[in-house]
Amino acid sequence: MVQQYQSPVRVYKHPFELIMAAYVRRFPNCPLIPIFVDSEVVKEEHSDDGATVFIERRCKVEADAPRLFKRMAGVDYLYFIHKNTLDRRERALHIEVVNETFSNRVIVHEICNYRVHPENEEWTCFEQTASLDIKSFFGFENAAEKLAMKQYANSIKKGKEIIEYYLKELEDEGVTHVPRWSPPQAPPPTARLQLPLTSAPANAILVPTAEETLSASPTDLPPGSPDDKLDADYIRRYLGDLTPLQESCLIRLRQWLQETHKGKIPKDQHVLRFLRARDFNLEKAREILCQSLTWRKQHQVDFLLDSWERPQLLHDYYTGGWHHHDRDGRPLYILRLGQMDTKGLVRALGEESLLRQVLSINEEGLRRCEENTRVFGRPISCWTCLVDLEGLNMRHLWRPGVKALLRIIEVVEANYPETLGCLLILRAPRVFPVLWTLVSPFIDENTRKKFLVYAANDYQGPGGLVDYIDREVIPDFLGGDCLCEIPEGGMVPKSLYRTAETLESEELRLWTDTIYKTASVFKGAPHELLIEISEPSSVITWDFDVCKGDVIFNIYHSRRAPQPPKRDVQGAHSSIVSPATNNMQLIDRSWILGQDYSMVETALTCKEGESVQGSHVTRWPGFYILQWRFHCSPACSTSSLPRVDDVLASLQVSSHKCKVMFYTEVLGSEDFRGSMTSLESSHSGFSQLSAATTTSSQSQSSSTVSR
User: Fold this and answer.
1) Which helix (H) or strand (E) holds 628?
2) Residue 400 belongs to what H/E stretch?
3) What percentage of the chain's residues is helix, strand, coil (to nearest 5)?
4) Does the pLDDT at position 647 exceed 50?
């Protein structure tokens, strides 16, 4: 497996030329890197005007590895080839590093770049990428890989001191400015001075230039970074202290989202929560993040706080609310569960209304975390929850109520990971162990570690509530002096209870009232959607996510109306609802492409996890068919119209099934304002949705498929 590293952009508040003057002092060896033994120039080239210089060096590094590894490898030193290109005119230095030792067993490739900051020409940016591929290493590939990555991460931390050390040395010598290069006015002299062009190896076995990843002094840069890349100071200010490898995981996942979810990138804090929930395993974090983004999009969770109006029953009987913050600045939510009539709320409102209430609490918590980050000047990504269980009894263990609680826990765990900083459970009664036995298996292990339980009045002593909350904000019902404006709760009148049939109908309406639909795409059985156009120049717009598998997206036009579609309803499951997932085929197998129907857009291959938006301006009236077709490799591809037996067989093979979630809309030409990423029509439901997302920097053509 190839291990990769991507650094954030690090900014030096020094001109490029001064950084290069400090850089040259690291040769031929560096006292801060004892394992860097020596280096020699093997090739040097200069352009005629002296603006560009290329130098290749062979660097000798002591193998900093356990004695067993050295004896197996039979070497005490490692050699690396550094190819460095300095462009004085553009004020940029490009460094490329590959390993010479064990090149048939191990492939090390590192690229570093120094360049001028795009917004301040007196500052310098540094960025680094690296990859490690151990093909074979005497049967110890996994151990060698872990050792190499660990030492590489350590070398990055140590390397942050290198440039600052030599900048300080220059300052002590009175050198604080180096003039910029300018084209020569006379023929260049025959003798050339050696310039700071090469890179010294770092304190690592495999990638010597890791020390180039240096930390800039704190800057006043706004959130974000040059060229839409993460800045090291931004990470430290808004996301917290991350190890180099954790920074790399965040940057790589963010880059992947930019490539596949253009215009809809979640906030960095949100991405980081999913990485933490999976211990920075990039593949696992990407999987659950994509599932959550699809869930949020399908159920329009981003608009929940603005669009959902809480029923009056929740205002009167839901005993929870936000209350100041804890000692660490995290928002504090208080829930008086023992005073809540959970059975009455479920019978009167239904499970889905309670779920929406909890989702709105989590969405509000995310907002408050962002606000507190700005107020306190440090990263705050989670909140504290205080649960008062006084009054908890067997009534709270009513089976439908426990079922609703378990479902809420499941949804929150899947879509709001690492948002709970601490859960304080106070005045736990004897019945609490029964409830805990029921719900604890559904709570993630990392989340369970954040639970603190206090029985009776134990929370009042040392190690209790005052260790987490300032005395002046302790609620009055817990013995404090702060007024807590949370409803007292009480029993919900039975006259407000509704029948099971009414609740079921209401719940179905709540979670199926969405602009998005889902469809299954099988090998040999595409999903097709019919759109009838009566006026030319109408605009067909679409937005879809590929939830599973790879698909090919096509748009066809026909003047003939297809026959009534045949439907193949397959069961599907969602974390909130379980609507039927349809597979619909419209194009008759007797139709001939080019005669009965024609393709009006170039086919687009869409990979799993991609989010695709686009639009098509119609040229003729008639019937337009949007088609999502199963995509497989050429070796396993078949005709577009297979035998019935083939289709039935493919339906039983999960690997031959894809799933898409889509929304389409037809706009009049007078309502269209460009591509899907910039719709502004007041008549468009989708335009309201896209306005709440981050639009991509480049608008796609309105008559082409855009991603």
Assistant:
1) strand 622-630
2) helix 399-415
3) 35, 25, 40
4) no
- Domain boundaries in the chain? 3-184+193-216, 304-510, 514-706
Q: Are 112 and 239 in contact (CB under 8 A)?
A: no
Burial (Cβ within 10 Å: 0-12, 13-18, ≥19) of residue 273: buried
Q: What are phi and psi of 92, to 5 degrees?
A: -145, 145
**Residue 447 pLDDT exceeds 60:** yes
Per residue in 26-62, pLDDT tens?
Answer: 778 877 777 778 888 899 999 988 889 898 988 888 7
CATH for 514-706 is 2.60.120.680
Contacts 24+ apart (CB under 8 A), 515-518: 515/300, 515/663, 515/685, 515/686, 515/689, 516/297, 516/298, 516/661, 516/662, 516/663, 517/582, 517/661, 517/662, 517/663, 518/298, 518/547, 518/572, 518/579, 518/581, 518/582, 518/659, 518/660, 518/661, 518/662
CATH node for 304-510? 3.40.525.10
pLDDT at residue 684 in the model: 36
Q: Which secondary structure element, helix H or strand E, spans residue 149, and what is its range?
A: helix 141-159
Half-sphere exposure of residue 394: CA atoms within 13 angstroms, side-chain side: 0
pLDDT tens sequence across 166-189? 888 888 888 888 898 888 776 555
Which residues have a Cβ under 8 Å from the Cβ of 374 and sit 6 or more positions away?
none
Give the position of tokens 């008549």.
683
Tens of pLDDT, residue by residue over 65-95, are 666 666 666 777 888 888 999 999 899 999 9
Tell me what the mean pLDDT of segment 181-198 comes to. Answer: 56
Mean pLDDT score across all residues of the chain: 77
- Token match 């719900």: residue? 439
With CA atoms as reference, report the closest residue to 97 among 39, 138, 157, 136. Answer: 39
Helix (H, G, I), strand (E, B) or coil at 91: coil
Q: What is the 8-class DSSP label of residue 677?
A: G
Residue 586: pLDDT over 80: yes
What's the per-residue H, E or C state across 299-310?
Answer: CCHHHHHHHCCC
Q: How confident is the model at residue 362, as a pLDDT?
A: 94
CATH topology of domain 3-184+193-216: Alpha-D-Glucose-1,6-Bisphosphate; Chain A, domain 4 (3.30.530)
Q: What are 661's strand-pairing partners?
A: 518, 545
CB atoms within 10 A of CB 169: 12
